[in-house]
Amino acid sequence: MLTLKLINEQTDKVIAGLEKKHFKGAAEAVAKVQEIDAKRRATQNELDKNLSEANKLAKTIGMLMKQGQKAEAEAAKAHVAELKETNKTLDEQLKQTQEELTALLCTIPNIPYDEVPEGSCAEDNWVVKSNLKECVEGVDTVGNWTANPGNDAAKLPHWELAKKYNLIDFDLGVKITGAGFPVYRGKGAQLQRALINFFLAEASKAGYEEIMPPTVVNAASGYGTGQLPDKEGQMYHCDLDDLYLIPTAEVPVTNIYRDVILDEKELPIKNCAYTQCFRREAGSYGKDVRGLNRLHEFSKIEIVRIDTPEHSKESHKEMLAHVEGLLQKLELPYRILRLCGGDQSFTSAICYDFEVYSEAQGRWLEVSSVSNFDTYQANRLKCRYRTADKKTELCHTLNGSALALPRIVAALLENNQTPEGIKIPKALQPYTGFEMID
């Protein structure tokens, strides 16, 4: 969540940032935060004053008794008792005010960086790079993009290829669980495992420590990274134990550093994790969710960084380069989007999406989002670091998919189909053990 320091010291910047994110009632929300914070500080000041006075009186009571000033001592005792009763009320008021303030701050999104473009929807996102053509920043918005390779009518979509080569059984997944839970088999399962191992190996080469976290988390973890209370409707909830199935490994991995004070020398911390991910995807329907395009359970490799404010933008660039390198090695047509304010997530300060092109479907498929959250998550997590001069500061947190498997598999199957079968990219062949699906 946004810090009170930022809200109080850079109020105009915060309001402008919230408006850039198309957050309704930005000025009113900020004013309400400042009003409650002022009340909180006034209550705290009164409480501190009373505690100080009570401590001073307590020290004088014994002295007054020794001096025989019993009446004065009894009056001091009575006043201390009054202060204690008042302080009980102030303590309760302070607790309630703090809870009200925190609840309000949780409803306010992160503010975007200056380089985030204006815009209200996906059509306003900027295409900043592609291996199909040169991009002109600010001109090549998604709405103006004209470099689509087109739809090859002769190519089969991945759901037909999956059936033809017995790679994925969508109907069996419906029987066992429901729609959005496919069963991978034979070379389809081997391709999944190969991609997981390939992505983890590449992350390891780039210096990421592999983590194998739980795939269920408690509410505190969901709150720490911002899934709660914003996205609880999209998460699977285990009511009996009050646990949530993770929508991404970002949640458990970033929460490793909840309530932790790191040493500046440890940063940046670089972690990666392969997990199954679970998303309800409530409200999703139609052709855009067919096959592997949108699932309720899927495999994903996540990269996470914890960094200093001074270095986090450089870390973000390195993460973007890492994801782009994976797509280049898989020989897929891709483009990189800088998301506009209105299309960014609740928690991100800046986000880039990676999309690959599906020749059979004639559309772009998102395969990764790489975000810098600035101090927004760290403030919730109380994730801090100690500087060389012993000051304690909030960290910056970053994460990205490297990569999500379903749409990568879809693009690999569709774009690499030939009359003889489906070709496996050279970089992936050591992991599959075969060069062709036939």
| Structural class by helix and strand composition | alpha+beta
What's the Cα radius of gyration? 27 Å
User: Ranges with pLDDT <50 over ≥5 residues?
Assistant: none
Distance between the termini: 51 Å
SS field, number of helical segments: 13
| Strands, total number | 19
Shape: elongated
Strand order in space, largest sheet: 1-11-12-13-16-10-9-4
Which range does the strand content fall in?
15-25%
Outline the structure in words.
The structure is a single chain. With 438 residues, the chain is α+β, with helices and mostly antiparallel strands. The protein is elongated and about 105 Å long. β12 and β13 form a beta hairpin. Helix content is 40%, strand content 21%. The two termini are 51 Å apart. It has an 8-stranded mixed sheet. A 3-stranded antiparallel sheet has the order 5-7-6. α3 packs antiparallel against α4 and α5 packs across α12. The chain has 13 helices and 19 strands. It has helices at 4-9, 11-20, 26-66, 70-105, 158-164, 170-176, 187-205, 219-225, 250-254, 312-329, 376-381, 405-415, 429-432, and strands at residues 126-130, 168-169, 183-184, 209-211, 216-218, 237-238, 243-245, 261-263, 269-278, 297-307, 334-338, 350-358, 363-372, 384-386, 392-394, 396-404, 417-418, 421-423, 436-437.
List keywords for this structure.
438 residues, alpha+beta, eight-stranded mixed sheet, three-stranded antiparallel sheet, 13 helices, 40% helix, elongated
Task: Give a brief description.
This protein has 438 residues and is α+β, with helices and mostly antiparallel strands.
Give me the secondary-structure topology.
Elements: H1 4-9, H2 11-20, H3 26-66, H4 70-105, E1 126-130, H5 158-164, E2 168-169, H6 170-176, E3 183-184, H7 187-205, E4 209-211, E5 216-218, H8 219-225, E6 237-238, E7 243-245, H9 250-254, E8 261-263, E9 269-278, E10 297-307, H10 312-329, E11 334-338, E12 350-358, E13 363-372, H11 376-381, E14 384-386, E15 392-394, E16 396-404, H12 405-415, E17 417-418, E18 421-423, H13 429-432, E19 436-437
Parallel strand pairs: 4-9, 8-14
Antiparallel strand pairs: 1-11, 2-3, 5-7, 6-7, 9-10, 10-16, 11-12, 12-13, 13-16, 14-15, 17-18, 18-19
